Each structure stands twice: as structure tokens, then as C-alpha cells.
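Q: Could you fold this chain for me?
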Amino acid sequence: MLRKLLIGFGLAEIAKPEPIIGLCERIGLRNPSETRRRPLARTGARLEGLLFVWLLVRGRKGSTLVTGVLGLAGLTLVLIPQPIIELSQYLVYANTDDLELQPWVVPAARLLGVLYLTVTLLSRSTGEEPTASASETDADPSSSRLRLRSS
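A: Sure. Below is the predicted structure, expressed as C-alpha cells.
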């Protein structure tokens, strides 16, 4: 269920990044009307959504490099969010000195890090419940019957 919800969020971020960016600005800034976004802000949001969808749909077949980078970003956001906050502001806004952050931006960035880590963990699972028990490890992959061992 969580996987489907995150895929839906990623698709929404790809299709219409503007409302999501605007919501984040209203939540995180005291003066959201004074932002001057760089041209690549929407592209960055779409890229984030694409990464979510790609990793969650492809699962274990996804790139370990992309999974590692997203996991590292998530871990950094959880442990030391300030450098990532400053970097993302610099990449997204032309007037970073004019922006007034809300006091809850750091905890929100940590939650975003947890979200990134959740996506990386969910991407490593197949999204399906395992059907084979430990006693079926010798099962023939082309058949649902167990192989008989000769003594």
C-alpha cells in the first residue's frame, strides 16, 4: 500500500510539480511569495518523482547507483540536514538570502530523509509476499512441485 502511495506521489510530481513545490514553499518559508525560482526547479522536482517511480516500480532490477545516491541523501538529511537544505535552496532559488525559513524546516528535512530511506528500502523488496517456504528451497523453478531426491 505504501509503495503504491509513493508511486502515486512520484507520478503527481512528474506530471504537475508546481503545486507540490508551492506547497513545500508555503510550509517551509515565512515569505513564500518572495521566492524567485531558478528555471531548473521544476525539472528537479520531476527528477525526484521519476526516481521514486523508477526505483519503486523496477524494484531489485533498478540501478544500485541511483538507490545508493538516494539512500545517501536520505541518511545525510536525517543526520545533518543543514548542508542539504542550503544546497537545495541554492539550486532552486536565485534569492536565497531573502528567504526566511520556518523553524520546522530542519525536522521536515529529516522527515524527507526518512522518506528517501523508505523509498530505497521499498525498492529493494519486490512488493510481493514470498510464497516459497524454507522447505521449498530445492523446488524446480519451472515447476511448482518439489524435486525428489534420490538416495
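A (continued): Residues 2-126 form one domain.
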